[in-house]
Each structure stands twice: as C-alpha cells, then as structure tokens.
Write a structure and sequence with these properties.
The protein has 337 residues and is an alpha/beta fold. It contains four helices and 38 strands. Strand 21 (185-188) and strand 22 form a beta hairpin.
C-alpha cells in the first residue's frame, strides 16, 4: 500500500500545508467514508456541514472553507483539480499487459518500440508500428499499417482497423472499435450498394476513449479526433467527423457523419447531433440535446422536455400537439385588430 507524509503530498501538489506535515496518508476516500489515515476533499461549499462528522486525517479544500474544519488540510485554489492529481498518486489500477505474451500473434515486419507490452492472444498485423512504452491488452486486434503512439494503453479486446493512427499517451477502454466502416451506401432501385470506406481514423495525443465506443473511418477523407479529447462509453462517432482539441463527449452520444465540432466543447450524455454541419468552439450541449442545425455562437444549448409527473406531462404533450392550431388562431386574432 502506498503511503506518504502529508507534507510530502503538499509539496508534490503545490498546496499550502495547514497542520502537521508528519501525518501519514495511506489512501483517498469520500468525506462520508474516510477513516483515519485517509485524505478527502471538499470542492463544493454546500457540503461544508459534512466536515463535522468527517473522520479523515486531512482534507483538500480552498481557504474559504478552512474555518469549518479543525484538522489538517491542504489549501489549494481548485480542490477538485487537486483531487484528480492526488488520486493519480494513489492509483492502483494494473497495467493492461506486461511483457509480450507467448500467445500474442505479431507479424514479422511489425515495428515495436522500446518497452512495448502485448497481452495474451492479441494480434498485431503486418506494417503496424507501436511506439515506445505502448501497451496492448489481451485480445486486441491492430490491423495492417496501423500506428499507435508512445505510452498509449489499450485495454482488452480493443480493435484498431487498418491504417488508423492513434497518438501518444492515449487510453482506450475495452471493447472500443476504431476504424470500422462508416455507414455509406448508395441505393440502386431498392438495393443497397456498399461504398467502400477509404479514409482513416486519426486520433491525437492525450485522448481517452471509454468502453464500447465506435469511431468510424472516413469515406474518402479521415475521421479526426483532436488532442486532449475525452469520449465516454458507448458513443458513436460517424465517418468523417472532426472533433476539436479539448472537447469532452459524455456517454451514449450519437454523432452523424461529416460533423465538425470545435475546440473545448462539452457534449452532454445521450445527445444526438445531426451531420454535415459545424458546431463552433466552446459550446455546451446539455444532456439529451438534439442538435439539428449548426451552432455558430459559443454558449449553453438545451432541448427536450425535463421529466414531469405523468399526468402533467400528458397535458404538456397535448398542448405541444396543438401548437400549430393555436398559432393559426393567434394570427387570425392579430389580423382582426
């Protein structure tokens, strides 16, 4: 078990130490469950009242909350950000693979960098390039001429199709598929004719992608995911989409093809975004948003009806169905004025 002195943590995190720096910290926990030896954090002042019953040895907090706590503390400007860095120090997540498993199938011409790890039953096809420190989990498939950057980690059963490029320091969770065919077909008198998808998926550096997400390859040009993008579980990113640097996409989002999303956008969970349009930088789409038109101004956008008691919702739905009729009556009344 990792353990260190509170003063050492303060130095590593750039925090102001309040209290005894010789206290030993052995883990991180929530305010409700923390016990002696553990450190917790307070990022929202509405939880100040919980400090009275908190049993943690120390708390990460802002200076404005210090008067509500009588124990040791690390004082920082952004407690939540510091919490993220703190947990990294105590992270016990195992690596997806260590060494090269005997059952891994690796093409003779694949290029493996220094300290590469490849798990059991993984398949590395011809022309693949793996950067230094890349880790490929058990059962992964890396298709012909794909490239994966230095220190990128793929958990078990990730599929990366041919010619796709993944940058450095990325993390891709299990079951994700990078570079499957986009949904491209022509119709010949009722029969679907497949359009081969000749583009790639190109993913930047420091990208994280959740479990069971699919990112389709481009039809002719590439599907592009910028640097420092984070994508949650079970998302669908269609062919030729472009996602700008620093954008975050929550779980269950569906993006249609040829969509361009700007930098530092936040896309709420279960949102659906139409294709062949553009969303500018610094746009937030709240959960279950349905984006049917381009967004040209930064800001927060929402759609849909929030949950209501059923009998209230039925009345709301009835009114919505009669909007056109009410609009016509209103216009008729206005003409009579």
């Amino acid at each position: 078990m990792f353990a260190c002195k509170l003063g050492q943590l303060a130095a590593q995190l750039g925090a102001q130490l309040h209290g005894d720096g010789e206290l030993t910290i052995t883990g991180v926990a929530s305010m409700q469950s923390a016990i002696t030896g553990q450190i917790t954090f307070l990022s929202d002042k509405k939880h100040r009242s919980e400090l009275a019953d908190c049993k943690a040895t120390a708390v990460v907090m802002s200076e404005e909350n210090l008067e509500y706590w009588h124990g040791a503390a690390l004082i920082v400007k952004d407690p939540y950000l510091t919490y993220a860095k703190l947990v990294q120090l105590f992270d016990t997540t195992p690596l997806p693979a260590q060494g090269i498993a005997p059952s891994a199938v690796i093409a003779p011409d694949a290029v493996l960098g220094n300290n590469v790890a490849i798990g059991a039953n993984a398949v590395i096809e011809s022309g693949v390039v793996l950067g230094d420190g890349a880790i490929i989990g058990a059962g992964c498939f890396i298709g012909k001429n794909a490239a994966i950057g230095a220190n990128t980690k793929l958990w078990a059963n990730v599929s990366v199709y041919h010619n796709c490029i993944i940058g450095a320091h990325c993390l891709i969770q299990s079951g994700t598929v990078i570079g499957a065919d986009g949904f491209g077909y022509a119709n010949d008198r009722g029969k679907w004719v497949k359009i081969p998808q000749l583009g790639r998926v190109v993913i930047g550096d420091y990208v994280e992608i959740g479990a069971s997400t699919t990112i389709d390859r481009g039809a002719l040009d590439d599907t592009i995911i910028g640097n420092n993008v984070i994508i949650d579980n079970q998302c669908q990113i269609a062919h030729n989409d472009i996602i700008g640097d620093g954008t975050a996409v929550a779980g269950g989002v569906i993006m249609a093809g040829s969509l361009k999303i700007g930098r530092h956008c936040l896309i709420g969970g279960a949102s659906v975004i139409n294709g062949h349009m553009e969303i500018c930088d610094q746009v937030t789409v709240t959960g279950m948003g349905m984006v049917m038109r381009p967004i040209t101004e930064p800001g927060i956008y929402s759609s849909g009806i929030p949950l209501q008691e059923n009998k209230v919702w039925r009345k709301t739905a009835s009114l919505v169905l009669h909007i056109d009729e009410m609009n016509k009556r209103l216009k008729a009344l206005e003409k009579k004025r």
